[in-house]
Amino acid sequence: MNVCRTCLTVAVAKDISLLPEELEGEPQSYSDIMLFCLGLNVVPESKLTTKLCVDCFLNILSFHKFKTQAVKSDEYLRSLQEKVKDEDDVKKEDTINFFDDDEIREDQDIKLEVQADDGIEELQSDDELLSVIKKIKYENLNEESKENEQTTVTNRKKSKKKSKKESEKQEQVCEECGKTVRNLKEHMYQHKPLLMRKRYKCKSCDKMFSTFSSRLKHYKIKHLGIKQHCNECNKDVVNLTSHCMVIHNSKPLPFECVPCGRRFLSKSKRDQHMLIHTKDRPYKCDQCDKDFRSKMVLMQHKRQVHEKEKTHLCQFCSKRFFKKYHLQVHIRSHSKERPYECPDCGKYFTTTSTLKNHRLIHSGVKMFACERCDMTFCTPGYLRNHMVCHTKEKRYSCKYCGTPFGRSDHRRRHERTAHERVLTSV
């Protein structure tokens, strides 16, 4: 049986024996991992299937990490509880010993000697002596109780301040976009309509901004040209320290993606990246049949495709683009510039994304499997292009003759070879 062991799907791409290689820490067998996470007793010599689909493989890895963290936290809390019990027992013993008769008598003798040295008259009877001892004892106890009350009040104030600071630092999840933020009130201001927001106009141009910090950042970069140069990649960046951490030295970053091992500076960016490894697309466009992984990408799709927003103009051919980055890539087609070189084969590319997709060919890792056949691919884009072979959908039509094509690059090749070369030759 060539099906997934957990969900019985046919699109299997992993084996259970690969689970120990993806986990860090103490070495474990795949049978121990399955028993720990799912309670399934997988016998190595069993005739049952040992295959897993990509989703189940990733879910087992993430759940193993979550459960191990929960077990460690529980052990830590139980050790703290035992320590507190031991401290309470020690305090009880100290209070019992405090009222021992021998120690009380010694303290009374010392205090009487001090009072006699200060000029107190000698007492005549034992009753008078006991009354003086009681007064001294209660005065000292009252002083100690006052000092303890003052210390407890100060400790309570400090604990309240710490709890307020810790509550402010706790991250909260935004229900609108799904991001984890520290200050939810400030973040929700971004989801208000443009007419209800307070806008800040740039001093040097007509651009408007929603926050004062974004306007200041725009003024420093665009008008003052304040950037820092990175010697490793020869780029001018706004924040050199964060650029070096994210691009060149990502190992110390705190948040790690379990499936691919990539690390991120914040939890929200890690969670946004994790959507690449899943098939969930909860945000659907109300004007077409497309669906997206995040609300931000959905809004960009509406502005770019349906609203036809194109604010960046090419100075050579007057072509307009939605993003400035798309304009920069387009200008390289006029200058024939290919600045990004592949270190494996020496080929040059116009963008970093095309270079990254090309380098996956040299790695040989193919994590995206087709549901209808046995083929696997390096990127989800290659998988989408392959799915046209099964769906037979032809959405892209030629602007000259109207011939439909399943892929946009096939349509572009047809327009260039069948029509544009004929027009230039004529």
From TrEMBL:
Q: Where is the composition biased (Basic residues)?
A: 155-164
- Alphabetically ordered keywords of this record: Metal-binding, Nucleus, Repeat, Zinc, Zinc-finger
Q: Where is the ZAD domain?
A: 2-80
Listed InterPro entries = Snail/Krueppel_Znf, Znf_AD, Znf_C2H2_sf, Znf_C2H2_type
What Pfam families is this protein classified in?
zf-AD, zf-C2H2
Residues noted as binding Zn(2+) in the record, renumbered to the chain: 4, 7, 53, 56
Q: Does the keyword Transferase apply?
A: no
* SMART domains in UniProt: zf-AD (SM00868), ZnF_C2H2 (SM00355)
| UniProt-recorded name of the protein | Uncharacterized protein
- Provenance organism: Euphydryas editha
